[in-house]
Amino acid sequence: HTYTNLHPHALQIPLPNMALPSFLLDKKTAPYVIWTLVAVVCALFFWLTRGSDEKSEEQGSAASNRNGSAKTGSSSAPRSKNRSKVTVALDGTLLSAPTQELQEAAIAPLLTLCETSELFTIALAQTDADEDRVRSVLESCGVYSKGLRHHRVMFSSTPEGRASMVRQLQPALHIESDVNVATALSGKIPSLRLVGTEDWPDFATAFDLCATPSGAGDAKS
User: Fold this and answer.
1) Segment 123-182, tens digit of pLDDT
2) pTM for this predicted structure
3) What is the DSSP letter of 22?
4) Do 189 and 163 touch, CB atoms closer than 8 A?
């Protein structure tokens, strides 16, 4: 069949009513509805992006741990926290007294102390230039890369001042070269070794925490 001359409205199909509920168009409630929809969209976006970021972080952390383990190997093991506190008078041990020239034979023992103890060094210095020179000597020896911390490089203007600093630090062991300082510290700290004596003829014999003296023994409180 052919249909001709149909009325323009004859084939119109009724559409469902797509109008929004009237309350959504209310001027009073419309802003609340709009902001609620915005909040829902933002929350959904945040939830989706956070999940993606967490996965990326987990993957990155796992990769970093694998790379770190591969690079460090056995060196990744944490250092022991139960280190003995040791103080060393640099004058007369690493540095010759009174010229403060570097003693090559003392470098290796000092580096060992840096690695195995909680080391504090004390040197005589009258000026900032004196302190800078001592720090420069220590850096040239490589002590900082072996574990000595910069704030544990200490100075005093007199031997008596050094004795006072050692008493305050209360180390398990102090290695000294000045007999007057050793006398002042006798009985004040657990262990004291005076370099240049029969028991401890040089720094190389005095630095070992497990060493026994050549003579009667080291001074103990």
Assistant:
1) 999 999 999 999 999 999 999 999 999 999 999 999 999 999 999 999 999 999 999 999
2) 0.61
3) G
4) no
